[in-house]
Every structure is written in C-alpha cells, then in structure tokens.
Design a protein that fits this description.
By secondary structure, the protein is of the alpha/beta class. It has 11 helices and 6 strands. The longest helix has 18 residues. It has one domain: 3-Layer(aba) Sandwich (Rossmann fold).
C-alpha cells in the first residue's frame, strides 16, 4: 500500500479555504456513486499488462469494502473499463503517436485493452454485483466528452456525488476526478483506494486533489460518513 503523506501546509490551506477538512462529509449516500477506474488485468496481471501497477492489487480489499458500503447505504457502483478499439486509434491518434519510442507498449496496449481480451477484464478478486453498472471509456478521463456516457448516466439516476478509486492515481483517476468536479459533481478522492507506480506520484495527486479539486478521505472515514448520514436520513423519515 502507498504511504500517504499530505503536508501540513496543504491541510492548513484546505482549512483556510473551506473552513473544514472534509467539505463533502455530509454527502447524501443515496446520491453517491462509487467510480472504480480501470482495475483491469491490463494493469494488475503482469503477463497481460500494458502498464503494470503492483499496488493496484493491494487496494482491491478497500475497493470491495467501499463498494459494499455504498450499496448498503443506497448508492451505486460503476466499474470503468479502459478500452482500445479502431475508433480510439483514429480519434486519439496523438496519444499513441506520443509513445512512438515504445512500440512494444503500444502493441501491448492495443492487444490487452481490446474488448474480449483477458487484459480488458476486471481483476477477478473484485466483487461485482448484478445491480452494478459497467462503463467502457476511451480516454484517460471517464468524464471528458467523447470518452463515455458516464456523466449522463449519473445525472439520469440522480447521482451528484462521486467517489474516485482505481488506477493509475495520477493518470486516469486524477483526470476523471478533475473533470467530474468541473462538471459540477461533488468529488471525493479516496486516498487508500487508488494506486500509482510510486508513493511520490500518488501523493502528488492527493496534494493536487485536496488543495483544489476534491475532498480527500480514506476508506474507513468515508464509510463512516456514508453510514452515519444514512442513519440520520432514516431517522428523519
């Protein structure tokens, strides 16, 4: 697992700007979506990985635990799967051209991120329920125009809060969180349920998220918020 390190001056900045360390702790569980980004074999099983992230396997228990709590308190779980197809190769050609120095990586990405491949599948240790939803994305961010229909799906179901988990912390997860916030979703970045290549990259994203783009909570704190708020709502009925 990553060693979390958010400097005190960032905590102080958050407190000054927001008046609280957790601006979204009063989230409505019934309007909350857990967004699980790219926890697929192509990042988690070395033999079919286009970019192998060992820590991604380590966060699976936290993601499963959080998914169970989200379902229990009335929210929804969305499994996001990075997808490469012929359309992506044409409409996002610049990204693949940027990797021209690593042709093997491009070949592996095309092979192991296509529909039907083992790499495209979710990691087998993830607990996926029939009521969950799967979304295929075609860019780093699941929220940017042209990537997927996720924002429209969330709004159609009355969901206004997103909990961002998955891999890679500083690429697809960070991109999704930034876009979600700028599309006016309440955004929570889960510190111990995201995975990067290194602690340094992971913590750099946490600092950026916390100082500007999102609330940052760990799994246990977030689950406590979900259950506490669900109990309050139930008592008020």
């Amino acid at each position: 697992m990553h060693k979390i390190d958010i400097p005190q001056h960032i905590l102080d900045r958050v407190m000054t700007r927001r008046g609280t360390l957790h601006c979204h702790e009063n989230l409505d569980p019934t309007k909350t979506a857990l967004i699980v980004v790219d926890l697929q074999n192509c990042f988690m099983v070395e033999e079919v990985a286009s970019a192998y992230v060992p820590v991604a396997v380590e966060i699976v228990p936290a993601v499963n635990k959080l998914a169970a709590a989200v379902r229990e308190t009335g929210g929804k779980v969305f499994w996001i799967r990075n997808t490469v197809n012929e359309e992506v190769l044409k409409t996002w050609s610049e990204w693949f051209e940027m990797m021209r120095g690593s042709p093997d990586q491009v070949t592996r990405r095309i092979k192991h991120m296509k529909m039907g491949s083992r790499g495209h599948q979710l990691h087998p240790d993830l607990i996926v329920k029939p009521e969950d939803q799967t979304v295929f994305k075609q860019r780093f961010s699941a929220f940017i125009q042209g990537s997927s229909g996720l924002p429209e799906m969330l709004r159609a179901q009355g969901l206004d809060t997103v909990l961002i988990t998955g891999t890679v912390t500083n690429v697809c997860c960070e991109s999704s969180a930034r876009d979600a916030m700028m599309l006016n979703f309440k955004t929570v970045f889960v510190s111990d349920a995201n995975a990067a290549m290194t602690d340094e990259e992971h913590n750099a994203t946490l600092v950026s998220m916390y100082s500007t783009f999102a609330d940052v909570m760990d799994t246990d704190y977030l689950i406590n918020c979900l259950r506490k708020n669900a109990a309050v709502s139930e008592a008020a009925e």
